[in-house]
């Protein structure tokens, strides 16, 4: 654009000059060796311009002839370089596609057309070709050569780092990452690897310092950096909880400011507050996280905040949590468990059944089994809830890379990834027959067998498990009219709910109630006083 502007200015200047001379005619006389040359001013100016243009043309022709050997060499060199770059591009594409044969062929062609000193990407192509062919030793040598060159140091260190990770040499991988961070702290992979290695070694302060540097260098986005910093502060607080509760409390509270829903940080902060006998602060911290998202660990720490509380006091604290987040499964389970501990079985059963209707899962049915065991001791009903637990969806847990942990960890034990644990249902526990939905819970509650009454066999040495009483009534002959009258009178009396007939059904579910006799058949009270007439035969099992 600038050249075009200059060309236009020169053309306009020449045109204006010739126009100015044309408006002012004149005569020029030149005397040279007894010759007199006279011409007009316009002709003289035109001739001068033509001579200047001819001189420039002759100078250009002489220059072209003089530099033609170099121009020819440069032309062929550029053509060879272009062919080399074309081969290099084709080879890199082939290496990325996994075509080892073409990548090696293009690598050799590139070597013949371009010098490796001029183009460092040739080393990369050769290393990639060696990796595809499975020649890892050759690839490592290439990466080492690249690591020694300042121009390709970062690329070589990354290749060596990946090879060390592949071989499981974690210490060597850490050293390569540390070296890369020293020369280029802005590399995301190096910073991430160094951050994870420092975290695995428990160097939380160094990890936090490196994370702050990455944040200032805009390597990480602000939400991600704040989340990871909160995780590191929580891990640091967990390590300091036993020896320095006050420092652990400060770190945990700082983590909660960065990630308000971080459950482990809230639990650690509450434990630190409780060690300072500050129950109010501990409860306030747990309540803040509970309002954001109910969690069983929050409920457990909140309900058992004071070790000297009675079961009734713990039940009141659980009900306070439920008031904060009503109609929530975790709230209902917390109240049900506290009510069970307080021996308030009616409330425990109601809350547990409500949780089952809302979200039927394994923990809900197991809690119902515990309630049944404590209230009635009926093994049939307990087994009913246990069977429902086997078919119910599994409970959420701390999961990272397929690994299920009983407690939260800052790093994944499988890959070493930071902030990998999530509170969710493990994938490996989703197999098998699973019944979901509130209809499954309603069906389970409706199919609950009735409570059975067992005969307690008192023995000074042992006590056998109770067995249900089975009653079988056989009709009397037609001529035994007095006995039939007694049975008819007994049939009008409602049978108690704790009797099960021989066919396994409760009398409540039958159309006609079955009479119940509380004394053995050899008792005179159940025999017909008139011995002449046959009586109804009764058998008790």
UniProtKB/TrEMBL annotation:
Recorded superkingdom: Bacteria
Keyword Glycosyltransferase attributed: no
Alphabetically ordered keywords of this record: Membrane, Transmembrane, Transmembrane helix
Gene3D superfamilies: Tetratricopeptide repeat domain
Region span, Disordered: 478-541
Chief location category: membrane
GO cellular component term of the entry, any: membrane
Residue ranges occupied by any HemY N-terminal domain in the UniProt entry: 26-133
Keyword Cell division: no
TM region(s), chain numbering: 41-66, 87-103
Subcellular location: Membrane
Compositionally biased residues, Basic and acidic residues: 520-530
Protein name per Swiss-Prot or TrEMBL: HemY domain protein
């Amino acid at each position: 654009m600038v050249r075009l502007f200059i060309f236009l200015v020169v053309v306009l200047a020449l045109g204006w000059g010739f126009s100015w001379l044309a408006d002012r005619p004149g005569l020029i006389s030149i005397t040279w060796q007894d010759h007199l040359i006279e011409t007009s001013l316009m002709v003289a100016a035109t001739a001068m311009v033509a001579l200047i243009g001819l001189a420039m043309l002759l100078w250009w022709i002489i220059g072209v002839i003089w530099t033609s050997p170099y121009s020819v060499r440069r032309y062929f060199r550029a053509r060879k370089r272009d062919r080399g770059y074309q081969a290099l591009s084709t080879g890199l594409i082939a290496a990325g596609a996994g075509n080892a044969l073409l990548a090696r062929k293009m690598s050799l062609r590139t070597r013949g057309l371009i010098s490796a000193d001029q183009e460092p990407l040739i080393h990369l192509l050769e290393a990639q070709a060696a990796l595809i062919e499975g020649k890892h030793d050759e690839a490592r040598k290439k990466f080492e050569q690249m690591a020694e060159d300042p121009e390709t140091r970062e690329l070589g260190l990354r290749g060596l780092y990946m090879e060390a990770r592949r071989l499981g040499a974690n210490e060597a991988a850490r050293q390569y990452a540390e070296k890369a961070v020293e020369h280029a702290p802005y590399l995301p992979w190096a910073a991430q690897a160094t951050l994870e290695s420092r975290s695995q070694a428990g160097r939380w302060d160094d990890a936090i310092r490196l994370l702050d540097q990455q944040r200032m260098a805009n390597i990480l986005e602000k939400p991600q950096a704040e989340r990871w910093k909160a995780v590191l502060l929580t891990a640091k607080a967990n390590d300091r909880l036993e020896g320095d509760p006050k420092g652990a409390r400060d770190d945990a509270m700082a983590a909660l400011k960065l990630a308000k829903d971080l459950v482990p940080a809230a639990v650690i902060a509450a434990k630190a507050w409780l060690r300072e006998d500050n129950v109010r602060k501990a409860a306030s911290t747990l309540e803040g996280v509970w309002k954001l998202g109910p969690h069983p660990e929050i409920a457990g720490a909140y309900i058992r905040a004071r070790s000297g509380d009675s079961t009734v006091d713990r039940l009141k604290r659980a009900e306070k949590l439920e008031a904060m987040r009503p109609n929530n499964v975790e709230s209902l389970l917390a109240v049900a468990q506290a009510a069970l501990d307080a021996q308030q079985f009616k409330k425990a059963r109601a809350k547990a059944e409500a949780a089952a209707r809302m979200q039927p899962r394994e923990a809900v049915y197991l809690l119902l089994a515990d309630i049944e065991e404590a209230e009635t001791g009926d093994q049939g009903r307990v087994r009913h809830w246990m069977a429902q637990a086997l078919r119910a969806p599994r409970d959420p847990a701390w999961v990272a890379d397929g690994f299920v942990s009983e407690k939260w960890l800052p790093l994944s034990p499988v890959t070493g990834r930071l902030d990998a644990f999530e509170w969710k249902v493990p994938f490996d526990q989703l197999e098998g027959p699973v019944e979901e939905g509130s209809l499954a819970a309603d069906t389970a509650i409706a199919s609950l067998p009735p409570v059975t009454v067992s005969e307690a066999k008192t023995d000074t040495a042992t006590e056998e498990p109770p067995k249900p009483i089975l009653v079988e009534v056989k009709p009397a002959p037609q001529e035994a009219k007095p006995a039939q009258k007694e049975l008819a009178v007994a049939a009008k009396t409602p049978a108690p709910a704790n009797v099960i007939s021989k066919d396994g059904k409760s009398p409540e579910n039958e159309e006609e109630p079955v009479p119940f006799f509380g004394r053995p058949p050899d008792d005179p009270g159940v025999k017909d006083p008139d011995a002449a007439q046959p009586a109804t035969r009764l058998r008790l099992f």
